[in-house]
Structures are given as C-alpha cells and as structure tokens.
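Hi V.,

Quick status before I head out on leave. The structure for the redesign project is tokenized and pasted below; the design run finished overnight.
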C-alpha cells in the first residue's frame, strides 16, 4: 500500500506544530524610562535658556530696507526695537504699530526676526498722487486719499489739488452731500486714471463738484473730465482726442462717447 505523498506529509507537520507563538511586548526597564525623562527635561530647559537666558540669541542689529524719503535712522528711532532683549521675545506686532503711528508715510511694514541676532524692518512708503496747499507747505495725498505728510517743497511731477467748492450754485450742495474727504478721493481716482503723458504734464486737478472735475496742464491747456466714473474710457478718449486735435487748448471728455475740443 502506498504511503502518504509529500504534500500530505507537509500538511500533517503544520497541523502538529500548531500556530506560531505570540511575542509579548516587554516594556523598557524603569531606569531607562527615568533616564529618558530626565534627558528630555534637561533638553527642554537648555532650549529655554538658549532662547531667553543666553547672550547668543539677543537683538544686536536692526536693519532697514525700502526707504525712499524717510531715512533708516528715522525708522529705527520710531520702531524703538529693544536691543539686547532675547530675539524670541520681541513683539513684532507692537513694533509695526509704533511705526504706523509715528510715521504715517509708511504704507506697509514687515517686521521679521533674522536669527541669530537681527530684526529686519522692510517698509513701503506711500507715494503722493496729489498735493494740497496749506499756507507755504504742501500736504501729500496718496492713491487711497490718505493725507500722510506735510512738506515744505512740492515733489516734482505731482499735481496740486484745488477744491473750488465755495462758489455759489450747485457746487455747495455737492460739498454738503459728499463731504470734502469724498471729493478728495474722487480727485485721487481721476489722477490715477490719467494717461501717463497727461499725468506728467498736469499742474492742477480742480474739483468744483462730484461730477465737475477738470485738469489744468502745465502748458496752459485744460481738460474737462467730469466725474471719476469711466476713468479708463476717458483716458483712451483723451489720448485719441489730443492726437486728432493737437492744436486745441480745451478738451472735454466728461461724456467720453461724445468728446469735444476747441481753441487753437
């Protein structure tokens, strides 16, 4: 009689041997746990001391970048960074708030830690788009209508703003309805929409009412712009009109679909 085959003998051996033994987790000795815990505590304490107690990671330098009119010294003085303090503890939000409060010319400021010992101040200054005369000085107005600085000399290439609102007629109600600040913002929008060549040659932006804004160019020409609405269309229309009527002295784009020019 034939004996069992090789496959049968393998199956019988597996059945007789049973399942493999289960390995049990053996926790590390208590001594090892204590050593690891102490090491973590020492490491944490060392990190805290390095950041707050050591002399290596303290503020030693304050760098300033991005200034144009302001000087780095003015920015450092207004920032009042606590030199010598741990770099990790410097309140960057407070520095930013001080700069905005003391130097309104600053539009955007980024205060950053630069390890191991420096605070970096990157500023973006406001740029004037209009000037409001105040006595012998000039108030600079940016593209958001913010009056941010008073200077004794008018920056080159920046037109003046004239609010001619005290005349009788429909102009006075415009002031009561919109307010001077709103009308200044409208003038700013007009200045921002001007073609580059016209903007460079504009001497005065005159506001008589919300929808009666005009430009006086340095060469004596005048542009009736109207309101600040449809600024891009008016800019394109004015450019084409000036090319077509190069000898004209007066241009009207208040209704950009029906522009007009006159004078010679």
């Amino acid at each position: 009689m034939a004996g069992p085959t090789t496959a049968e003998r393998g199956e019988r051996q597996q059945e007789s041997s049973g399942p493999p033994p289960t390995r049990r987790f053996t926790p590390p000795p208590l001594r090892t746990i204590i050593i690891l815990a102490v090491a973590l505590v020492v490491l944490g304490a060392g990190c805290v001391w390095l950041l707050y107690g050591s002399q290596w990671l303290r503020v030693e330098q304050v760098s300033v970048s991005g200034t144009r009119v302001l000087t780095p010294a003015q920015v450092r003085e207004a920032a009042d960074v606590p030199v010598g303090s741990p770099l990790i503890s410097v309140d960057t939000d407070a520095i930013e708030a001080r700069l905005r409060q003391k130097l309104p010319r600053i539009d955007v400021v980024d205060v950053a830690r630069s390890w191991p010992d420096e605070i970096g101040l990157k500023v973006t200054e406001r740029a004037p788009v209009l000037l409001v005369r105040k006595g012998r000085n000039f108030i600079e107005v940016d593209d958001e209508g913010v009056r941010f600085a008073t200077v004794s000399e008018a920056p080159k290439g920046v037109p003046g703003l004239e609010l001619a609102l005290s005349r009788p007629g429909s102009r006075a109600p415009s002031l009561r309805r919109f307010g001077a600040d709103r009308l200044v913002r409208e003038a700013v929008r007009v200045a921002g929409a001007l073609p580059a060549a016209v903007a460079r040659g504009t001497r005065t932006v005159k506001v008589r009412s919300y929808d009666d804004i005009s430009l006086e160019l340095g060469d004596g020409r005048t542009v009736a712009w109207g309101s600040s609405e449809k600024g891009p269309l008016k800019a394109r229309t004015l450019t084409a009109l000036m090319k077509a009527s190069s000898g004209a002295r007066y241009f009207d784009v208040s209704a950009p679909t029906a522009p007009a020019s006159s004078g010679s």
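Above is the designed sequence. Residues 61-125 form a domain with the Ubiquitin-like (UB roll) fold (CATH 3.10.20.310).

G. will cover questions while I'm gone.

Best,
W.
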